[in-house]
Amino acid sequence: MRTHSLLLQTIIRSKSFTELHLSLSLPFPSMAVSFKMCASFGLFVGLIMLGLVSSAKFDELFQPGWAMDHFVYEGELLKLKLDNYSGAGFASKSKYLFGKVTMQIKLVEGDSAGTVTAYYMSSDGPNHNEFDFEFLGNTTGEPYLVQTNVYVNGVGNREQRMNLWFDPTKDFHSYSILWNQRQVV
Fold it and tell me: Where is the GH16 domain (predicted)?
């Protein structure tokens, strides 16, 4: 059995505002962590602020994946500087065999074309397993797309795209990946 790391990335190429709330319920190692993320983007530079609700510090559980100069730690607050050229992302330091990841997300209003917010679980290596959950930006008036994919032994081709039947910009909505030795839901 392969263990998986949690990764979150946001790629931004637009003026926008979004809020995310990340809840992790992962049995190995045992923990339940809750994070709140708020993003505000200007013409060239923006900030994502991540306030930790749990007693654990962000840097004890996660590590930046790229753009180290875009991460600013202020106690229990993490700020990610984003611009039109660089996104930012972080990954869990621990690996997990089974678990559930839930994100409560309020997405960008209006023209969010060029914005992708994604979270996924992935094992290492060329024959990796991966569970993806991505929100694809849109132009004003078009519905958001949610894109999911599952990779088994490095092979994907299980991509699914769905138009949301509700407005994900008006309130927080919960999205989860639950996996165990028998299924991924």
Answer: 21-185
Which residue among 60, 76, 130, 142 is the active-site one? 130
Task: Judge contact between 130 and 12, C-beta under 8 A.
Answer: no
The pLDDT tens digits of the residues spanning 150-177 come to 888 989 889 999 988 888 888 878 888 8
Residue 151, classed as helix, strand or coil, is strand
Q: Which residues pair with 36 in a beta bridge?
A: 21, 51
Catalytic residue among 60, 74, 109, 134: 134
Give the C-alpha separation, 101 to 67, whole Å. Answer: 24
Is there a catalytic annotation at residue 19? no
What does the pLDDT read at residue 160? 92
Structure tokens at 95: 């690996």
Q: Taking the domains of the chain in order of start, what are their residue ranges?
A: 5-179
CATH number of 5-179: 2.60.120.200
pLDDT tens-digit readout, 95-117: 878 888 777 677 767 777 777 77
Q: Which of 49, 45, 117 is nearest to 82 (CA)?
A: 45
* The overall pTM is greater than 0.90: no
In terms of Cβ atoms closer than 10 Å to its own Cβ (0-12, 13-18, 19+), residue 91 is: middle
**Active site includes 142?**
no
